[in-house]
Amino acid sequence: MNTARIVVLVIALGAGGVAAYLASGYDNRPAPALPVAEKLPTVEVLVAKNDIQLGQAVKAEDLQWQTWPSTTASSAFIRRDSRPEAQTQIAGSIARVPLMQGEPIREQKLVRAEGSGFMAAILPSGMRAVSTEISAETGAGGFILPNDRVDIVLTRRLKNPDANSTTAGNDLILSEVILSNVRVLAIDQAPKEKDGQNAVLGKTVTLELKPDQVATLAAARQGGTLQLALRSIVDANATELTAEDLAIKRSGGVNVIRYGVQVRQLTSQK
């Protein structure tokens, strides 16, 4: 072996050794420390341990404390640091709306019955619960369910003013909306749907009315037949027509058309 080859071999072996040493030293270096995530401040809030149905009496075992990020905890939530005994204090309240498992408890969604009945406990302040009879024909075929919104239509029969003339006809049938956007509280004694049913053929409907609407409904029941018209869920938040608005609409009267010609205008009888 000549001298040149020996020199090249020595250089190659030396370079390999240096590379191995450098690689070994690099692998032994400690890995850079990962940034430590900042711990978010938390607070314990009272939540529903199980699903709570509308009208259900809440028990202490239906509630539990759950850790919640303090930055997203609403001021309406019940916090353990400010009300450590809330779990037992709230026991016995009635749920005004359904509560899902894990949902934070808000005082506005509960009411203390204080010995009153269920309906009186969940009825909003200033409102009245009034019942009236319905059937499949007057109750939208049974598709009206609790918490739906309806219009109330009064249909009545009026004497034909031409009854004694040679052109006498049948009595006049008039229909008008007397109340609009009324909330249904219950069908018969059921304040909520049962087992996901989508129709209830009840005999009685309980409505949520204002005091002046109670008188309107009571008078209408004596003056004709009442029918409920189911409103679309999209229209549930529509502006409600007041009694004055409905009275103005009715004050225009009804045009009587015969054979395509208007023969007279009937005004609404009080």
TrEMBL record:
Residues 43-111 form the SAF domain. It holds the Pfam family RcpC. This is Flp pilus assembly protein CpaB. The gene is cpaB.
